[in-house]
Amino acid sequence: MLEFVTSQKGTRKLVVQGYLFTKHSDGSDGKIFWRCENRTCKARVHTQENQIVHEVETHNHTVTHGKVEVERARASMKRRGGTTEETTRLIVQNELMNVPVSAAHLFPKRTTLAQDVRRHRQKIGPNDQEDIMKYSLTQGNRPFIRIRTDDMIIFAADEDLEFLSRCDHWFADGTF
């Protein structure tokens, strides 16, 4: 069985004996050609049906021990950022605690890791209709979403609208 990790760009990387391979191309009969992620290395692997069927060349470098763990942790940070409402700082802190100290030097700065999580959250946006629908009613089961288009959502409870109708001036804020 082949082992994979997720890259920073969301693609799969193949792990073979601690070396990381990126997908180079698809071949015939379901074959996939992989190349070492170190671009100066000539090592290649061919896989088919979740099995290595051919290895080409040998690596001209040593394994970077801990690199696989770092890739896994960074992918996990992004996944948690997209699926939980935990703070960015908590996600980064918890994932760093799960990585061996011997691999800590392979991580970028914490600010970079936090920025990765924030960018991923911003990129995926709200998690489908279900997330928005959670806020469509007030706790008293009255309508809360008043206007919803592809570009904008306006939230307001009945009490808020009544209050605004009695006001002479309105001030608005938004996230753009």
Strand content: 15-25%
Q: Look at the helices and sheets and give the structural class.
A: alpha+beta
How are helices and strands ordered from N to C? EEEEEEHHHHEEH
Mean pLDDT: 89
Number of helices: 5
The number of domains is 3
> In which range does the helix fraction lie?
25-40%
Poorly predicted sequence stretches spanning 5 or more consecutive residues: none
Terminus-to-terminus distance: 46 Å
- Please outline the major beta sheet: 6 strands, antiparallel
Number of strands: 8
Write out the strand line-up for the largest beta sheet, numbering strands in chain order.
Answer: 1-2-3-4-5-6
Give the radius of gyration: 24 Å
Shape, please?
A: elongated
Describe the structure using short key phrases:
176 residues; alpha+beta; N-terminal domain of TfIIb; 6-stranded antiparallel sheet; two-stranded antiparallel ribbon; 5 helices; 8 strands; 32% helix
How would the blueprint of this fold be written?
Blueprint lengths: L2 E4 L5 E5 L2 E8 L5 E5 L7 E5 L2 E6 L10 H17 L4 H10 L12 H15 L3 H6 L11 E4 L4 E3 L2 H8 L11
Antiparallel strand pairs: 1-2, 2-3, 3-4, 4-5, 5-6, 7-8
Helix pairs in contact: 1-2, 1-3, 2-3
Write up what this structure looks like.
This protein is an alpha+beta fold. It folds into three domains: 3-56, N-terminal domain of TfIIb (Single Sheet); 67-124, no CATH class; 130-165, no CATH class. Helices cover 32% and strands 23% of the residues. It has five helices and eight strands, in the order ββββββααααββα. The chain has helices spanning 67-83, 88-97, 110-124, 128-133, 158-165, and strands spanning 3-6, 12-16, 19-26, 32-36, 44-48, 51-56, 145-148, 153-155. The two termini are 46 Å apart. The model has no long low-confidence stretch (mean pLDDT 89).
